[in-house]
Every structure is written in C-alpha cells, then in structure tokens.
Amino acid sequence: MGFMFLSRVQKCHRRADTTQSPRAAMESSSPGLGIRMSNASPMETPGDAANRRAGKPSHLAFNFESISASPPTQRGAGSLSPVVKSRRGHHHKHSLSHQIFLPPPQRAPLSLPASFHVPTWREVASSCTSDQQLAFLWSLIHLSISAAVVKFNAASLAVAAIAKLVAFDALGVFCSALFEVLDNFPVWQKSSIQHPFGLKRAQVVVNFGQAVYLTYAGFELIREIMEHAVLGGGHGHGSSDSVHMDPHSLSSSGNMPLSMAVVCVATLFSRIVYGNHGHLVQIIDLDGAPQLLQNPFAILTLLPAAMLLGLSALGMHLHAMLDRALTAFIAAIITYIGSLLIFRLGSILLMTYPSTQLDAFYHAIQQDDEGIVELLDGKTWQVWSNLVVVGIRVVVRGGETGEIRARERIARLARNVLGGGYGSGKQIRFSVHVECERSSI
C-alpha cells in the first residue's frame, strides 16, 4: 500500500505546466534577483518534456499561480526591473507618533560643584608662607617653654597650673596657623554637594577639643589641691611650711624669676603678634566685658605668672597656703571658661545658635508692623565662628512688594539684634533665608 502511494505521488510531480511552469514563472518575475533555473526538472519524464516543447498543458497536483514580489517596470527596450517604492503612512522625522517617550527637559547646571579637592599634608606644607612657617616654629618653642617650666619648678602647684596654660597657648598658636593655611584651599570655606558648608566645620571640632583639654586641666588641678590638702602638703609639716623641695629653690636659685619672665614674654608675644585664641574669643562673646578682659586666656596666664615673678623677685617664699589658693583660683577660672566653651561649641555641633539674643530676634519679627502677619517657623544655626545661617518662614501681606519688604527687614534684624549691628566688632556673616506665604486677609 505504501508503494502504491509513493508511485502516485511521483506521477503527480512528473506532470508539467503547459503555459509556464512555476520555476519559469519565478525566473521571469524576478529577473533582478539573479536567479537562474534550468529548463528541465530532475524528475521530468520524456513525455513531459515533449509536451512542454509542443506547448501542450501539463497537469500538476497543485495549480500554483506565480506572484511577483515587486511589479516590473519598463526601463528600456525589453528590460524589466523592480522599483522600490517608499513605505506608506506618515513617517516624518519629527512626528509625534514617534515621540512616545519624550526626552527630559534641559535643566540649568547646578550652582554648586559636586566636590572640591581635599589637600594632602604635602600640599598644605608646600602652600605655607614664611610667616606661617614661623608661626609653626613659634608654637613648638612655646610648647618647649611649658615643659621647661614644669621641669625646673616641679614643687609648686601654681607653677604646674601655669605650665598647663602655656601648653594651651602653644596649641592655640599652632591651630591658628593651621587654619590660616587651610584658608588658601577652596574646600575649606566654599560649599559643595559633598561638603555643604566646607571643611571649616572641622575647626569647630578642634576648638571643642581645646575646650575639653582646658576643662580637664581645671578638674585635674582641683584634684591635686585636694590631694595635697589631705596629705598635708606632700613633704611639708603644715600650712605654714614652704612649698619646695629645697628651702632656697623658689627664691634664691633663679629658676622661678627666669621661668616666670619667659612665660610673660611668650604670652604677650603670642597675644600681640598672632592674636592667640581669636576664634575662641568670638565664641565666648564677652562684648560686655572691659577691653582688658575680652581675651581672658592671656590674662589667665599673665596674672599668676606676674604674681609669682614678683614674689620670687622680692625673695619671698611661696608658702603652701598661698600656693593652693593661687592654684584654686586658676583651676576655677579655667574650669568655668572650659565649661562655657564646651556648651557653646557643643551647641554649634548640634546645629543650634548659642546666643542670648535669639528670643529677642524672634520677638522683634513678630512685633513687625510693616506687613508680617505671623511667624510660622524659625531656625538659626551657627555653622562656625563667623557664619550664621538663619531660616525664617512667615506670613506676609501686600503681595510681592510685601515679600520684598519682609525679607529686607528680617535680614536687617538679624544683623542688628543677633550680630550687634555694624561697628560692634563682630566679624559674623549672616546668611538669611526667608520663605514667605501670602496672607488671604
């Protein structure tokens, strides 16, 4: 049965088309494609070939009609070639049908750079001027004076307290010179996305460390005073004994007058030439104090040193009671100043503004009669010693003119109330940002 089916299929394929075979139709309909087919089929019988030459029709199992892929076009005499037509439909370049996903709108470039170059220690050292190099050298000399004072006058607690203050002054000179060098680099003060307020915030951390050192030195002196009081002044026999290992160590040996004279000269030199502890003085804000006391750090070192210099110059012994009293005075002052600095610098690190005039500033805004209806919110933050950021949100009346007037008045109040106004001596810059909402009344 399978053999009969195969023979029937072969007979169907051997029949030829009388008019034009599919192979010939394909060859004639696509002359440009370069398709060449032979006239005889490999399965064509002699009878089919004779019918084809005689023009007789041949019967196939399936009667296919040839369809050309592209209609022929007359180019020349007896030549047919396909012509490619343009596609149908709307195909303009800027057609809205092709812009399903529109590109994002063009935005202005960011006003802040992404980041600034952070200098290395080699770059910092290479950018130092000769004056700054001398400042670093002087800080090392100042620190060596502190060590020499402790070494040659180890018997007195007051001298130990003065030595701690001299070391604190040397640290202040070094930090001031370092901050001055770092001001040469844009990453120190300029804002960027990586550092919104620059790296000058690190100065607040360094000043906070100085305040912690000062407070710790005060508590350590208090502990030593109590220890000497309990033990009877160490090697003495009462409160009337002299505080010295050798009876002549404080008066006639010459160490005390020379040491205290060097301390006084070094302190005055650092205060006058380098303006020592200027950043800490701005943070303490002692504007109401006399001119002599506006920088308490220099007075705190000069006063005890001058007192010991006078006693040693007069040939008087420093008794235990006077030594403890002078040490207690120094310890109380530096503990108070250190605690005040810790509170104010900690407030700056916690993004607040440690000022007693803050309530007066907000009250002055609420009492405004020039168009401010209500104070909705207010934030004030001291970024570092001479930069304060003020953010105010108010309700104003009067339209655009009222908004402009409110912004100007709030900026003026920030300078006058918080900064003390022009001519007050404060080198504080206020960055005031006001958000206004128009009143419906």
UniProtKB/TrEMBL annotation:
Highest taxon in the source lineage: Eukaryota
Keyword terms of this UniProt record: Membrane, Transmembrane, Transmembrane helix
Bilayer disposition of the protein: Multi-pass membrane protein
Subcellular localization(s) per the UniProt record: Membrane
InterPro entries cross-referenced by the UniProt entry: Cation_efflux_TM
Residues of the Cation efflux protein transmembrane domain: 144-350
Annotated stretches, region: Disordered: 14-55, 68-88
Pfam family, one: Cation_efflux
Biased composition (Polar residues): 18-31
Name the record gives this protein: Cation efflux family-domain-containing protein
